[in-house]
Design goal:
It is a single chain. The chain has three domains: 11-95, Rossmann fold, CATH 3.40.50; 124-184, Dna Ligase, domain 1, CATH 3.30.1490; 190-379, ATP-grasp fold, B domain (D-amino Acid Aminotransferase, Chain A, domain 1), CATH 3.30.470.20. Helices cover 31% and strands 26% of the residues. It has twelve helices and 18 strands. The protein has helices at residues 19-31, 61-70, 83-90, 99-106, 108-117, 131-141, 168-175, 230-247, 281-284, 289-297, 331-334, 365-379; strands at residues 11-15, 34-38, 52-54, 73-76, 94-95, 125-128, 145-149, 159-162, 180-184, 188-198, 204-206, 210-215, 218-224, 251-260, 265-271, 311-317, 339-343, 354-361. The strands form three sheets. Strands 10, 11, 12, 13, 14, 15, 16, 17 and 18 form a nine-stranded antiparallel β-sheet that branches. A hairpin with a 5-residue loop joins strand 10 and strand 11 (204-206). Helix 1 crosses helix 10 (289-297) and helix 6 crosses helix 7. The longest helix has 18 residues, at 230-247. The protein starts with 10 loop residues before the first strand and ends with a helix. It binds adenosine monophosphate (AMP). Adenosine monophosphate is lined by residues 123, 146, 153-154, 156, 183, 185-186, 191, 214, 217, 268-269.
Length: 382
Amino acid sequence: MSASSFSPGSTIGILGGGQLARMLCMEAKRMGYKTLVWTGGLEAPASALCDQVIELPFDDLNALQQFNELADVATAEFENIPRATLDAVEAAVALRPSAHAIATCANRELEKNFLRSQGVPCAPFWIISNAEELAAAMAELAGPGVLKTSAFGYDGKGQRKLQGDENPQEVWQAFQAPRAILEGFITFQAELSVMIARNANGEVRCFDVVENHHRHHILDLTIAPAPFAESVRQQAQDIATKIANAFDYIGIMGVEFFLTADQTLLVNEMAPRPHNSGHHTIDACATSQFEQQLRAVCNVPLGCTRLLSPAVMLNLLGDMWPAIEQAPNWIPLLADGSAALHLYGKKRAIERRKMGHITFLGDDALARANAIKKSLLSQGKD
Ligand code: AMP
């Protein structure tokens, strides 16, 4: 039996209402799809752009019933959605990616075990649920590592770097998580990522591999294409394809890697949704990651992923705002006719909040991005 396809005119139910849902809604509108956003009761930049919105928590049964009745097909814009909600949606509507894939990527322990079971290279890791296990893992690692909470960790949250000579009892007591993983610390040459889409018919397409730079553990700049050997880029796409096929994945997924000095790629983590490191695709690729998400989720042929121009994406974080409710002066930036400004409509610029991004196109994109970044940071409140 072939999987169902959904044509323009169908309603896409989206779990989560953040900027990823907002950009998906824009693409959906352009292509004639309707959108229904379930915000989970959180601030929702997508609510201004969707056709219908449910502004209730994810455990609200009326909201669930409404969502399941109105959506023709469903997807998620972030992975930390209660498993019970994912299962209840999946029982009624085609949820793409599956509850299993979303929940696996949302939990570092499940994610790492999945990678290990598939023979995908990643940092050495140990699963920790008490101080004794941490002591044993630290002894085996015998060097620096990173302790990460199993659940609810992103953008460096719930992480602690360990030198290896700390007292495990004290570390575990201070860490305050029921379960965690200890990873070996990777001295990487670069961080790379690849966006991959797979539809229900099994068609797979990857975007070009990109290089990512972080600031305060949050993505700062993405450089497309990644300036590394073709063999490295091909290997990253091959690993992403292996992961997507192993999940029988439907939708778009971001796979993040460490590249070591000896040119080995290790998977850091997967995002079962569009990813910040794919935002340049809106302005720089034949098909954006959001259009590709729609195509994959609706099981229609995937779009061409060709990069039309070198590009650099600069994230706009809250610390670039002169005051919490005062945006930078955008006029000088708009003088750069090859830079696309994207603002997410968030009212309050909290320090590390993602407020928007800019995509710079052209061979000198990195130099222009760095100049604007410097100027924005000098105006910012930090
Ligand atoms: P994560 O939330 O796991 O993506 O981690 C955020 C950032 O912390 C990564 O992008 C890396 O820069 C750094 N990091 C995470 N895990 C490791 C590791 N095992 N070794 C070295 N750096 C790491």
